[in-house]
Amino acid sequence: RRAVIDHLLVRVVQHPCKLQRGAILEVARIFGRNPRTIGKIWERANVSLGGDNLPSREMICEHTASMKKGRVGRKQKYTDLPERIRAVPASQRTTIAYVAHAIGIPPSTLKDYYKRGLMVKYNSNVKPKLTDDVDPWSLERNFLTLQSCLREVIGCAGGNSYKIPRMKKAALKKCGRLPESVSCGKDVYDDGCTLLGQVDLSTVMLELSLQTARDLEMSDIFTALETLDIDDQDE
Predict the structure, then answer these.
(1) From which domain of life does this come (predicted)?
(2) Distance between CA atoms of 160 and 162, rounded to whole angstroms?
(3) Whole-number Å distance between alpha carbons of 1 and 89
(4) What is the dihedral of CA 182, 185, 188, 193, to 10 degrees?
(5) 195 phi and psi angles, rounded to 5 deg
(6) Taking the domains of the chain in order of start, what are their residue ranges?
(7) Where are the beta strands (DSSP E) in the chain?
(8) Contact 11/29 with Cβ under 8 angstroms?
(9) What is the per-residue pLDDT across 102-134, written as a single tens digit (0 to 9) for each?
(10) How far apart, in whole angstroms, are the C-alpha atoms of residue 90 and residue 156?
(11) Please, are residues 133 and 115 in contact by the beta-carbon 8 Å criterion?
(12) Which residues pair with 18 in a beta bridge?
């Protein structure tokens, strides 16, 4: 449509300010369309040619984009969905399954409404996304702490009843003696191998990969559902 208008504008004569004779037929042949279609596009554009007898307008050409968007396709089944979601307490909006159960619709339907933009995504204050604002020193300290946790978890056979010994990272960093990784004794390594030998590692890795895939797929939805900002427009 924009190209049609551009071709018609170059065929405007100055005196009087209007389309030259046969312009619509010529453009219709160029685009392979019916002349009535080209005429309707020109009429809808409502181009202000700036003639002496025409009032000046701020917009010299109206929008000619398709008017079908948002007006075609299957209509929404749940027209009162925003009100129903608002009635759900925030504590029950942690997952899409919880919200769907609370308002009585299938989770797949709620996910489809989310993809349409009825629920606006936001960053949780409880579990914000990792950004570039985290300084390298904080990441280094956290990485060393996680390694210490892993070593202690292996030492207590997978439990969580352990205490991490203080490394005094700041002091070690200041004197240039901060290690890049936490050392692991041979006894801890042997205990870890023994624990791994007691389970089917392939099964565990498969379950972990499936769970990770599901979490990655639904993480944005879970974050958006903790606190919802509903768009009342029915698109």
Answers:
(1) Eukaryota
(2) 6
(3) 48
(4) 100
(5) -65, -40
(6) 1-65
(7) 12-13, 18-19
(8) no
(9) 888 888 888 887 777 766 555 555 555 555 667
(10) 38
(11) no
(12) 13
Residue matched to tokens 């709620």? 110
Q: How confident is the model at residue 10 (pLDDT cuts 50, 70, 90)?
A: confident
HSE, side-chain direction, 13 A CA sphere, residue 225: 24
């700036």: which residue's tokens?
Answer: 50
Q: Using the structure block, give the residue that is written with the tokens 């396709």.
A: 73
Sign of CA dihedral 143, 145, 148, 153: negative
CA-based diameter of the chain, in Å?
97
Q: Can you tell me the mean pLDDT for 84-109?
A: 82
pLDDT digits (tens, 9 = 90+) for 168-209: 888 888 888 888 888 888 888 888 888 888 888 788 788 888
Are the CB atoms for 84 and 219 separated by under 8 Å?
A: no
What's the pLDDT score for residue 217?
72
Cβ distance 144 to 169 under 8 Å?
A: yes
Distance between start and end Cα atoms, the chain: 23
Count CB-CB contacts under 10 A for residue 20. Answer: 12
State the residue for tokens 């797949």.
108
AA letter at 234:
D
Compute φ and ψ for 229, nearest 5 degrees. Answer: -115, 105
